[in-house]
UniProtKB/TrEMBL annotation:
The species this protein was found in: Vibrio ulleungensis
Domain DUF547: 91-202
InterPro entries, per database record: DUF547
Signal sequence residues: 1-22
Keyword set, alphabetical order: Signal
Name under which the protein is recorded: DUF547 domain-containing protein
Pfam families noted in UniProt: DUF547
Record keyword Signal present: yes
Length: 264
């Protein structure tokens, strides 16, 4: 018998599946804007770098994580790193330090969440029956302010820096995502890593695939089109690396693979 409850569950499933296509807008959280004029504090990202050195593997166009091989000791080391990062006052960091701080915090917490819920087929399966992923779950408190992954990406990184390359820096633990960088971000290497990540992703099939008269782009360029200056801005951005995209006049398709970025 098809009950009211059945109908409600189906309707709810439809609503949440549609949320796949509704990316959060950049919504500035003013509190996090201040930064130090000069460097006065050093941030030690070495524990996170050691994790990357131990558990990242490049396979084809993907950089994968050996989640199933992470030791209990290394899981704890990652949590200790995150705990120490959460004690930092970002207002004491320069603008360059802050960017690296937030990107590393986002990526390290994403890894930590996967490890706490491993095995899982996709990060989208984490967060409860009616949640599409863990992005709105509180992950830490800094300066007395509770933070989620969405806060870091959409209320801090995107609106404060207004650099579309941020989408190549933060990693959502999925195959369709720009790869997790093999080096922790620092104030010294951020520009290099952003350019490297951008070029790598746009050059890959998961970023841009032109085949048999069909152009398939990562859904990132649909969800966050506004960050690239609209649809024309997306094409101009991609054409910097893939000039053939500028002359394409056919149908454009968007795609994204939410499968976990794991070494199997």
């Amino acid at each position: 018998m098809f009950t009211f409850v059945n109908r409600l569950l189906i309707l709810t499933a439809v609503v949440f599946s549609c949320s796949l296509f509704a990316a959060p807008k950049a919504d500035l959280w003013d509190y996090w804007q201040p930064f130090a004029d000069a460097k006065a504090v050093d941030i030690d990202h070495q524990p996170y770098q050691e994790f990357l050195d131990s558990y990242l593997v490049v396979q084809g166009q993907h950089t994968l994580v050996k989640y199933n091989q992470v030791t209990t000791q290394d899981k704890q080391s990652l949590k200790t790193y995150l705990s120490k990062m959460s004690e930092v006052d970002p207002h004491q960091l320069t603008r360059e330090q802050q960017y690296a701080f937030w990107v590393n915090l986002y990526n390290a917490f994403t890894i930590d969440i996967i490890l706490d819920n491993y095995p899982t087929k996709s990060i989208t399966k984490i967060g409860g029956l009616f949640s599409f992923g863990p992005w709105d779950k509180e992950i830490t408190t800094i300066n007395g302010q509770a933070l989620t992954l969405n806060d870091i990406e959409h209320r801090i990184l995107r609106p404060i820096w207004q650099d579309p390359r941020t989408h190549y820096a933060v990693n959502c633990a999925s195959l369709g995502c720009p790869n997790l960088q093999q080096r922790a971000f620092t104030e010294a290497n951020t520009e290099q890593l952003l350019q490297q990540a951008m070029q790598s992703y746009i050059s890959s099939d998961k970023g841009v695939l032109l085949s048999n008269g069909q152009l398939t782009l990562s859904s990132i360029y649909d969800w966050f089109e506004v960050d690239f200056g609209g649809s024309d801005g997306v094409i101009d951005h991609l054409a910097e690396i893939r000039p053939e995209v500028a002359n394409f006049s056919g149908k454009v398709k968007f795609d994204y693979d939410w499968s976990l970025n794991e070494v199997k």
